[in-house]
Amino acid sequence: MSIADEIKEKLKEKIVDWYQHSSRRIYFSVKPKDIKEVARFLFRELGLRFAIATGQDTPQGLEILYHFSFDKTGEIISARVLIEDKKNPEIDSLATMFPAAEWIEREMWELLGINFRGHPNLKRLLLAEEWPEGKYPLRHEHESR
Amino acid sequence: MSHKVIIPIGPYHPLQEEPELFRLYVEGEKVVDIDIVIGYMHRGIEELSEHKHFDQVAFLVERICGICSSSHPYAFVLAVEDILGGEVNVVPERALYIRTIIDELQRVHSHLLWLGLAGHFIGYNTVWMWAWKYREPVLDCFEMICGNRNHYGMSKIGGVRRDIRDEDIPVLKKALDDLTPAVDMFKGAVMDDPVIQARLKGIGVLTKQQAIDWAVVGPTARASGVNIDVRRDDPYGAYDRVNWNVIVEKDGDVFAKTTVRILELYESVNIIRQCLNKMPKGEIDANIKDVPPGEGIGRVEAPRGECFHYVRSDGTNRPIRHKIRAPSFMNVASNKVAAVGGTISDAAITLAAVDPCYCCTERLIVLDKRTDKKMMNGWDLIKLSQEKTEKLRKGTI
Question: Is the CB of residue B154 less than 8 Å from the CB of residue B146?
């Protein structure tokens, strides 16, 4: 059974949307409340490697793509969540489960203003100490394009 | 309460290309905790990228790192080509080979650079001088192909910007022939030397489980027995068209990381040689004009590990999101476990073992936490490391 089928079967109640871009690039969406369970299954049970997460500001809300790599076949499986509440965006931290997520969550917290519940060490990673509170460089509202 | 002293390494230190600060918490000689502070080199490139058109971004991301300056633009064009339908369906055959040759030449010069530095920090200055001497002809090859020793400007969506001329191929082959005996020499000088073995074995160990939990990549992961390499697992360029091996070691210490890098030099030479022989004639650029809406992921095995780029396009001529993750982002964080439990004299080489590049400026001071009095500078720490090697050599410890 391919890794894609395994994920589909095990997580079928949690998957909102499934999109296979090419043979080695798979994207699926889950609800923000399910992310911890989904990540635990991908990382601990299937043994996927956590490559990185991409946070982005979209008109619908703040989106996070958690990229997991299955190195046996070269597939990248990206779990997508959309946090609609842009005023107080919050999601469970994965850093408690695997330390590899610690830095990237700190980065998304300071650049996009997403609060990661339960993060062991949520402080600035890249921005200077004198950077003003509440200004998020990767949010799009501050600029006119 | 025991007397705990903080030793800051950085933000400016010759072991690091990017300024970063390691605060070592020590009790006596032993490192009991470490605090890693980065951000000194944050230039906002992800945000900048959203304001450049696709062709410009390749040049922009090349400036992320002066050592892996082929990996970032390559990963970026792979991400865009993923939107377009995949590198292999878009890029002409000859360009795939040229991309691979540049990528591997870069690995050779980067590994030699690291080897030289590692030698210097444990007091083997001959290794340092030799490694950099043999790195020079590799940079000359780059200059011959792209006109530059370090920023190559080769990657372009849909192909490469410059061809490798027929008359340059014998010169490249000669350079590879000259390099092989040098690598033999390093292999003997480093791997068979009992003092280096005593100095590096069991130092800065990252176990396999730790490597998985911290999701480290590249030689740092392979030295801990994690068998991953993007070149084989998610092939790009011409890597699936030539024969080569992935080097994996089990011990996870500095010696294993050194072994992986030295043996990878042979594989790189081997890959370049095969590419030069098999490279077909033909076009080098597909002349891509527009990028359709969509999202793509590109990744490249940089000398330090997987370099990951994610690009989203809305059909205009600029990306609306460009996420970049360099290998050191994962590897440097793992120092939290690798350096703790070791001694101060091992800290320099342990922190350097993930190959976080090189910086020309140095500034390091050891402060007594109670008095804030200066105790030691960067050179003192290197001296401490070199003295330990010297003692091992004489058999006094």
Answer: yes
What is the three-state SS of B92-139? CHHHHHHHHHHHHHHHHHHHHHHHHHHHHHCCCHHHHHHHHHHHHHHH
Angstrom distance (rounded) from CA B189 to CA B174: 23
ipTM of the complex: 0.94
Whether residue B98 contacts residue B285, with contact meaning beta carbons closer than 8 Å, is answered with no
Q: Maximum distance among all alpha carbons in chain B? A: 72
Residues of A with Cβ-Cβ distance to B330 under 8 angstroms: 52, 100
In 3D space, the residue among B300, B244, B261 whose CA is nearest the CA of residue B103 turns out to be B300
Beta bridge partners of B36: B22
Under an 8 A CB cutoff, do A25 and B42 touch? no
Q: What is the pLDDT of residues A41-72, one digit of tens each?
A: 999 999 999 999 999 999 999 999 999 999 99
Instruction: Give the start-to-end residue ranges of the domains of chain B.
Output: 4-41+338-394, 45-329
**How far is C-alpha B153 from the geometric centre of its chain's CA atoms?**
19
Residues in chain B: 397
Comparing C-alpha atoms, which of A58, A47, A141 is closest to residue B295?
A58
- How many CA atoms does the CB half-sphere of A141 hold within 13 Å? 12
Burial of B331 (0-12, 13-18, 19+ CB in 10 A): buried
Beta strands in chain B (DSSP E): 4-9, 21-27, 30-37, 155-156, 159-160, 294-302, 305-313, 319-325, 365-367, 374-377
Class of domain B45-329: mainly alpha
User: Which CATH fold topology does A3-88 show?
Assistant: Beta Polymerase; domain 2 (3.30.460)
Length of chain A measured in residues: 145
Distance from CA of A12 to the nearest CA of B (A): 24
Nearest CA-CA partner of B211 in B191, B231, B228, B196: B228
Q: What is the pLDDT of residues B224-272, one digit of tens each?
A: 999 999 999 999 999 999 999 999 999 999 999 999 999 999 999 999 9
Q: What is the pTM of this model?
A: 0.89
Say if CB B284 and CB B234 are below 8 A apart: no
From chain B, pick out residues whose CB is under 8 angstroms from the CB of A49. Answer: 212, 215, 228
Instruction: List C-alpha distances in Å: B271 to B186, B266, B382.
Output: 20, 9, 36
Mutate to test the interface with A, among B47, B229, B310, B335 (most CBs of A within 10 A): B310
Residues B312, B227: contact at Cβ < 8 Å? no
Q: What is the 3-state secondary structure (H, E, C) of B182-246?
A: HHHHHHHHHHCCHHHHHHHCCCCCCCHHHHHHCCCCHHHHHCCCCCCCHHHHCCCCCHHHCCCCC
Q: Which of B85, B234, B323 is nearest residue A74 as measured by Cβ atoms?
A: B234
When scoring A40, A103, A139, A142 by the number of chain B Cβ atoms within 10 A, the one with the most, hence best to mutate, is A103
Contact between A76 and B299 using a beta-carbon 8 Å cutoff: yes
pLDDT at B181: 94
Does B239 reach chain A within 8 Å, measured CB to CB? no
**Nearest chain A residue (CA) to B300:** A74
Say if A137 is an interface residue toward chain B (CB within 8 Å).
Answer: yes
